[in-house]
Amino acid sequence: MKDITKYQGIFPAFYACYDAEGAINPQAVRELTQYFVDKGVKGLYVGGSSGECIYQSVAERKLVLENVMAVAKGKLTIIAHVACNNTADSRELAAHAESLGVDAIASIPPIYFHLPEHAIAKYWNDISDAAPNTDFIIYNIPQLAGVSLSVSLIREMIKNPRVVGVKNSSMPVQDIQMWKDEGIIVFNGPDEQLLGGLAMGAVGGIGGTYGAMPELYLKIRELFLAGRMEEAREIQNEACRIIYKMCSTHGNMYAVIKAILRKQGGPDCGGVRLPLAPLTAADEAVVDETAAMIAAAIAKYC
Hints:
Elements: E1 9-12, H1 26-39, E2 43-46, H2 58-72, E3 77-81, H3 87-100, E4 104-107, H4 117-129, E5 135-140, H5 142-145, H6 151-157, E6 163-168, H7 174-180, E7 185-188, H8 194-199, E8 204-207, H9 214-225, H10 229-246, H11 253-263, H12 284-301
Parallel strand pairs: 1-8, 2-3, 3-4, 4-5, 5-6, 6-7, 7-8
Helix pairs in contact: 1-2, 2-3, 3-4, 9-10, 10-12, 11-12
């Protein structure tokens, strides 16, 4: 029987950390990891969308994970997203992640070409085979990957005993029920519906905005578990409003979040990597407003 307790909780998606020249900043990676340890989250999802993985080399992604694990091992549950758009690089990252002692690896399907299900299953199983002692989590994000997880594909994948769950970032919460019915755990992906995902049976959440306001998401889950749904819904609604504000800038949302972290006294994670859009001067007012909204919500609810 798999121990799923280590997957129950709030998992911020880890942000890419760059220096002034745009290179990976190992010190900032360690500082951000410790920041999350201190916030009391359950774990981290490293190397996914929030980590700007598709704009980083294999060597850079290894460097990030090495520095996360140097701080987090034994303190947080670490899920390492290892997918690249080819099998060989993905397997290299999977083997590397296992060598560092991560709790699980995860993967989106191959993007660009719309592969048949048997090819996607082989891709995932080939990656999993490179980390034979590590749990495997399917990452379902059809709005970006261009491929939707299906019941037939998940039934094929759970023949692999290392497949323990799905990070479900599709918008319908109904999908969470469908994947759970296949006997695996599910993480809620869309931050705007953490409460709905928990209500449908998600064991926790993995989210790209969690890092800017982990206190709010931790409180939502706490209130949900206590059956205090009206209070949880109020915080979820406020978190949604904050997200909408984050997304109203010219610059990319992750550039906004990194600026907010700096204002909160958190680590300096730098900017975002092109072609993601950096912040403009006009965005600074929105960053200030969003940071103020977060501070007010934490003061009110936490």
